[in-house]
């Protein structure tokens, strides 16, 4: 049996250059997805899985993140005076979600370096890593299942998604062996952003990880890889080939709903998909969408 997991790490130091000029003065994690910033969906996912101790690894110009998850007493007082309990509850929700801590990454040296910056907070226990570009639909509890697999297997667990081979160059790709569970595979190797020809499979790593603390010692000596950055994938590769000392790495194949907010087109799709399913928006949005699509040629 593994150690119960209580901590989540959310790397949030990226510059968001794909969304310039919107992200010139605003963190990309604060871009709204319908009426909540993308980062709030991620924190809500962690909390729903039982992880209420959250560390965000941030960078310069990210103060808006801390402000969002802090109280805004003037706004709350104004809403109370107006008797607007609905909006007041929404404002307070982000303040009360979790016990949130912050650490600066400093030099932007890659995802592996961002995870390494969490070492002092995490300590010597397993922990989850959630990337802010991926929103997992709350109806498909991926992280909960990953935590269960970590406890069951005592290994590090990464989320995998089957993608079209033409898209695998955008992800880390996994070489795998089957297990007795069709949704779980043992990872024997990992390659960061390979060409379609060099990819060991079409199973791509997406932004959810449950890691054993041995990852920190490995990251300490991991040399910069692709993009001259310290790649988390490279450290996971070392864990995958040394299961006797690290517990190895398993992949959970995700077959649910995922929204990518790290790309402009996918970000727009995510807003539409989530809004259509909302009780307060879907009924009016669906017929408008049908009318709009009918005007396209």
Automatic annotation (TrEMBL):
The protein's matches in InterPro entries, at most eight in alphabetical order, are given as: GalU_uridylyltTrfase_bac/arc (IPR005771), NTP_transferase_dom (IPR005835), Nucleotide-diphossugar_trans (IPR029044)
Recorded E.C. number(s)?
A: 2.7.7.9
Its name, as the record gives it, is UTP--glucose-1-phosphate uridylyltransferase
The question of whether Nucleotidyltransferase is a record keyword is answered with: yes
Tell me which residues make up the Nucleotidyl transferase domain: 7-273
Gene Ontology biological-process entries: UDP-alpha-D-glucose metabolic process
Supply the NCBIfam families for this chain: galU (TIGR01099)
Q: Name one GO molecular function term.
A: UTP:glucose-1-phosphate uridylyltransferase activity
Name the gene for this chain: galU
Regarding protein family, the annotation reads: Belongs to the UDPGP type 2 family.
Catalytic activity entry: alpha-D-glucose 1-phosphate + UTP + H(+) = UDP-alpha-D-glucose + diphosphate
Gene3D superfamilies with a match to the protein in the record: Spore Coat Polysaccharide Biosynthesis Protein SpsA, Chain A
Matching SUPFAM superfamilies: Nucleotide-diphospho-sugar transferases
Assigned keywords, A-Z: Nucleotidyltransferase, Transferase
């Amino acid at each position: 049996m593994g150690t119960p997991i209580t901590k989540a790490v959310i790397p949030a130091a990226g510059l968001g250059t794909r969304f310039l000029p919107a992200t010139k003065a605003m963190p990309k994690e604060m871009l709204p997805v319908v009426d909540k910033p993308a980062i709030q969906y991620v924190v809500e996912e962690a909390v729903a899985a039982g992880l209420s101790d959250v560390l965000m690894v941030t960078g310069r110009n990210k103060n808006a993140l801390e402000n969002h998850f802090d109280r805004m007493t003037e706004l709350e007082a104004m809403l109370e005076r107006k008797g607007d309990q609905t909006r007041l509850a929404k404002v307070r929700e982000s303040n009360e979600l979790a016990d949130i801590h912050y650490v600066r990454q400093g030099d932007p040296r890659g995802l592996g370096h961002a995870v390494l910056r969490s070492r002092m907070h995490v300590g010597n226990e397993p922990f989850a890593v959630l990337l802010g570009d991926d929103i997992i639909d709350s109806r498909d509890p991926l992280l909960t299942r990953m935590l269960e697999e970590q406890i069951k297997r005592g290994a590090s667990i990464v989320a995998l998604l089957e993608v079209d081979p033409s898209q695998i160059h955008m992800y880390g790709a996994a070489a795998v062996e089957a297990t007795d569970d069709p949704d779980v595979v043992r990872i024997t190797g990992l390659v960061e952003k390979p060409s379609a020809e060099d990819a060991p499979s079409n199973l791509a790593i997406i932004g959810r990880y449950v890691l054993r603390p041995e990852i920190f010692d490995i990251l300490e000596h991991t040399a910069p890889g692709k993009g001259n950055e310290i790649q988390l994938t490279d450290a996971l590769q070392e864990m995958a080939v040394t299961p006797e000392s690290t517990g190895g790495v398993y992949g959970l194949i995700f077959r649910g709903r995922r929204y990518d907010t790290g790309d402009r087109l996918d970000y727009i799709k995510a807003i539409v998909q989530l809004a259509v399913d909302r009780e307060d928006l879907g009924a009016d949005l669906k017929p408008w969408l049908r009318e709009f699509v009918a005007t396209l040629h």
